[in-house]
Amino acid sequence: MTRILMVLALAGAILIPGLSPMPCVKVQLDESTRNEGLLVEIPFQLHGSVIVTELSVDESTPLNFIFDTGAGGTIINESTAASLGIVGDETVSRQGGTGMASVELSTDHIVYVEDISFQEVTLGIAELDHIEKRLGMQIDGVTGWLILSQYAVRVNYDTMLIEIYDNNKFEYDFGDSGYTLEVQGTTIFTNVTTAFKSCNTFTGKVVVDTGAGNTFYFNTPFTEENDLLAEMDTYYERETQSLSTESSHVYTTMLADLNISEYEFSTVPVNIAIAEAGALSWSGPMGILGNGVLKHFNIFIDLQQQMMSLEPNRLYHDQFEVNCSGLELVTDDAFQRVIVDHVYAGSPAEEAGLEVGDEIVQINGANVSDFQLPQIRSMLSQDGEEVEILIDREGELCSYTLKLQALIE
């Protein structure tokens, strides 16, 4: 997950700070009415399943920010803040995915999203290098609630544009395509149903989180209450760490089905987290619905009405990628070299002899420097294919043959 949740209220009345009074003109949600209310369109890139767009802070040039519907505050990378001369006014503890993290708060900034400016913004300064290395690119910050609390937003994967709408002028009638959202503090929830191969099904409330690049996380309390580890058929596991200094143990396994209302996805790789602290340890929610699933829809969110619409897009029928190599890859600090960060036990990579710290130089004769990190992961996710991998191990070039095989099925 890419976020630090700045505010979390898991009980009590729903309060959405910063939202304007309800609009007075009610219109059917369609292309013409959307165009009437459209204020700006922001191009974005999809890196794996993470949305990266550009915005500016104060007088800066455009910066790379992750658009994250699970981000309760706006975070700026520690290195970016230093380059812009942004310093913290106070240090506080905020909740990350697996525990508490120290964040410096810097007040009274202006954030520009195209022609829209957000005044008196408090920025959280945090180190985001672990996110950068997983994406293989510079990330200057993370935002979500800042925009969602004041405007209706549509993420359009067919045009690769984030569309921002005036929800003071229009009250959009979602019709049959609308789904009610639950908003608690700065956290957005919807409901999903999951089914394991045992045919046991589980329905619950989940966080809507475009900043989570995976498909789905089951939270620890839900996992323990329903003995989900016993539901796993095949799985692999490792320790992971978010913005906090604490880690969690994560199992990756396969769901038979995942349903969002009438939409059903089959054979979905998901994560089951065992965490003692942080968002993954929350009691109440079943888990976190990530952008690995959400990117299959053009999503329109209007928190004024606490509604969301889902429109299947060009990615809707794409299959979910499954790790077939047993490798977890990151880049170096300069985003130039691709490094093996983890090798799963019993995987094709371990059997071939690859080790943590190896630099991937070529795959099937193609230089990995010609590809983005998500593309390289896709090249190693072709079940049943055989690939030749050239690695650099402490200055010595070595070649390995991997027979790719899905780690879970």
Features:
409 residues, mainly beta, Pdz3 Domain, 6-stranded mixed barrel, 6-stranded mixed beta barrel, 8 helices, disordered N terminus
Q: What would you say this structure looks like, in words?
A:
- Strand 3 and strand 4 form a beta hairpin.
- The chain contains 8 helices and 29 strands.
- The protein has a domain of 77 residues: PDZ domain (Pdz3 Domain, Roll), CATH 2.30.42.10.
- The longest helix has 7 residues.
- The strands form 4 sheets. It has a 6-stranded mixed beta barrel with strand order 3-4-9-5-8-7. Strands 15-16-21-17-20-19 form a 6-stranded mixed barrel. Strands 24, 25, 26, 27, 28 and 29 form a 6-stranded antiparallel β-sheet that branches.
- It is mainly beta.
Structural category is mainly beta
Question: Under CATH, the topology of the domain at 327-403 is which?
Answer: Pdz3 Domain
Q: Which sheet architecture does the biggest sheet show?
A: 6 strands, mixed, barrel
Mean pLDDT: 89
Helix content: 10-25%
The CATH architecture of the domain at 327-403 would be: Roll
Distance between the termini: 24 Å
How many strands appear in the DSSP assignment? 29
Proportion of residues in β-strands: over 45%
Count of discrete alpha- or pi-helical segments spanning 4 or more residues: 8
Name the CATH superfamily classification of the domain at 327-403. PDZ domain
CATH class of the domain at 327-403: Mainly Beta
**Overall geometry:** globular
- Taking all Cα atoms into account, the compactness measure Rg is 21 Å
Q: What strand order characterises the main sheet?
A: 3-4-9-5-8-7
Which stretches are low in confidence, meaning pLDDT under 50 for 5 or more residues running?
1-24
